[in-house]
Design brief:
The protein is of the alpha+beta class. It has one domain. Helix content is 48%, strand content 20%. It is built from five helices and three strands, in the order βαβααβαα. Strands 1-3-2 form a three-stranded antiparallel sheet. The mean pLDDT is 81.
Length: 85
């Protein structure tokens, strides 16, 4: 397996809702990703702290693009919404 195909932890979250929001944002921008340990954190909230939290996994090749997407934390304007219709 090449370095680009390696799956890495992009970010760790202790809030399952925030983890889902970021995952959804990345997927909406064409980044394949998934959450690891999210079920344990939901069932046993104490596990989040002791178990290292919810991990957002991405391909190593996408890490830089993920950083750009997350850094662009602007809300869509009405113009953006109209353009997408």
């Amino acid at each position: 397996m090449s370095k680009e195909e390696e799956i890495v932890t992009f970010e760790t979250f202790y809030d399952p809702i925030l983890a889902e929001i970021i995952r959804t944002k990345l997927e909406a921008n064409g980044i394949p990703c998934f959450l690891a340990d999210e079920n344990m954190g939901s069932i046993y909230p104490v596990y989040n702290q002791g178990g290292g939290g919810i991990k957002l996994k991405v391909f190593a090749r996408d890490v830089e693009k993920c950083k750009e997407i997350i850094a662009d934390d602007t809300e869509p304007t009405e113009e953006d919404i109209e353009k997408d219709k």
